[in-house]
TrEMBL record:
Phosphorylates Ins(1,3,4,5,6)P5 at position 2 to form Ins(1,2,3,4,5,6)P6 (InsP6 or phytate). It comes from Aphanomyces euteiches. GO terms for molecular function: ATP binding; inositol-1,3,4,5,6-pentakisphosphate 2-kinase activity. InterPro entries: Ins_P5_2-kin. GO terms for cellular component: nucleus. The EXKPK motif is conserved in inositol-pentakisphosphate 2-kinases of both family 1 and 2. It is an enzyme of class 2 (transferase). PANTHER family: INOSITOL POLYPHOSPHATE KINASE 1, INOSITOL-PENTAKISPHOSPHATE 2-KINASE. This is Inositol-pentakisphosphate 2-kinase.
Amino acid sequence: MLQVLLLPDMSRESSVCLEIKPKAGVLPGARNVHQIKKSVCRFCMHQRLKHAEGKVSDLSQYCPLALFSKDKRRVSHAIQSLHRTPQNNFRVLSHLPPTASHLEVLPQLLHSLSSVLEDLKAMHAKDHLDIEGVWALSQLIDLMPDTINNATNLGTWLASLSANLRCEINSAMDHAVLAGLTKSPWTNLTIDEFRALYNLILEEFHVATTYKDCSLLITICHGAAEETKWTPFEHTIEYANERYRCVVAIVDIDIKTHKQIESYYKLDQAILTHARDLAWQPCQDRGINR
């Protein structure tokens, strides 16, 4: 049976409703990823590629790592950057546009609801191996003949593969051990056990990918709290001697499994290929002194 969660009606004549698509709030933790990914986030690199391809006219100064940083200056810079260059990451859903006060309240709200952003980061971190590792394991799955004995030792079968692919598999599987997804030595896994492990990794990759593309719906209403709350999840923020009623909801979290792993990998490699020729400042250094 199809189940639908309906959000409460949070619209008021004096309220401002916003949609923020924060994107990935963590850098890849896998050792097998390209070096640049360890200091520059996917969003910032993808912006440069989109700009070079003419898909966006202006480069956004927004960085997801700043929004998730818990540093009020960086969070404020992230919000201002989204407002200046919204693209599809910042939308006004109400008839009233956000004022300067609303934009100043947003960092306070996100700071007070840091657990929401931490929960999102935890979902993002389920991408244990990055697409580079998932792609390598998918290649291994594709190479397995239908006639292979499921009880065959994985390490024995790997010996028949090319040196380059074995290197990629070794790196990805070593990190899978570090992430607690399997035990060492992983080469002792049977083919059947490896397939089960791959399905788990793929499932969590899809969860992470979904949450990296979800949205925050935020409603802010200026004024004193009413007797009846919109929802049990309503929050009150005090800022500059004024009171704001706020509600935040995470939406668009239906797990997306329709896209092929190859498509994710090709886009990832296109972003990396373009990024290699550019000078980069680590994301953690951006927005601090602005």
